Amino acid sequence: MAYEPTFRPATRADAGALAVLIDIAGNGLANQIWLEQAGPGHSALEVGRHSVRQETGVDSYRNATIAMVGDEVAACLIGGLPEALYDFSRIEEKAAFFRPVVRLAAQAAGTWYIDVIAGFAEYRGYGLGSKLLALAASKAEEFGAPGNSLVVGSWNTGATHLYERCGFEAAAREPAIFPSSYPQSGDWILMTRPLR
Ligand SMILES: CC(C)(COP(=O)(O)OP(=O)(O)OC[C@H]1O[C@@H](n2cnc3c(N)ncnc32)[C@H](O)[C@@H]1OP(=O)(O)O)[C@@H](O)C(=O)NCCC(=O)NCCS
């Protein structure tokens, strides 16, 4: 069975769901960054939701497309040109474990970069990810970009398999540096897909 989603631009009202999806795509890393920003006694997810509600910034709802199944938010795609999403002159201000990802994104300047692709667990494996990757190709065309790019963790073999099936190839990698409490280890891999 495959779901037939409808796609729409995100609005501020999607900020809560988007914060959770951003954290899912980052395998829990976004939550760690937000928790540090929140400080003791405050909610990491509230920081994430606040960040999505902004008009600018990589997590802004303005960079997001929502996949709806019926009346439920099922998945999302967030992206844009890397040089529009990130200020590469200020990489050092990012959380240490996020810097390798931004350095890899910098190598893909000019492509339409997939910053976040994620679906809620009950909607995975039903074709939504493949459809969102097709949407990313349309976005690249719309922006006059020659292709797509994304960064995936080497431990995320399921997602990597999907990307390879959809035409992405590894282009560069950097060791991932995580707090010792973090369950994953390996490399961040920049994958690219030419479209013409
Ligand atoms: C990666 C993801 C967006 C793919 O979306 P999807 O709707 O499950 O994708 P599709 O149904 O079109 O394709 C399924 C493919 O995704 C892969 N996949 C990854 N995680 C999966 C999961 N938990 N359940 C099912 N499939 C998964 C499968 O290997 C499958 O690949 P294949 O068809 O080539 O065998 C989705 O599984 C997800 O949200 N995963 C968690 C977040 C994440 O890791 N995001 C990527 C960060 S780089």
Describe the structure.
The protein is α+β, with helices and mostly antiparallel strands. 35% of the residues lie in helices and 25% in strands. The protein has a single domain, classed as Gcn5-related N-acetyltransferase (GNAT) (Aminopeptidase), CATH 3.40.630.30. It has helices at residues 15-25, 29-38, 44-53, 82-85, 99-107, 128-142, 157-165; strands at residues 6-9, 64-69, 72-80, 112-119, 147-153, 169-175, 187-194. Helix 1 (15-25) packs across helix 3 and helix 2 crosses helix 3. The two termini are 31 Å apart. 39% of the residues are buried. The chain binds coenzyme A (COA). Coenzyme A binds next to helix 1, strand 4, helix 6 and helix 7.
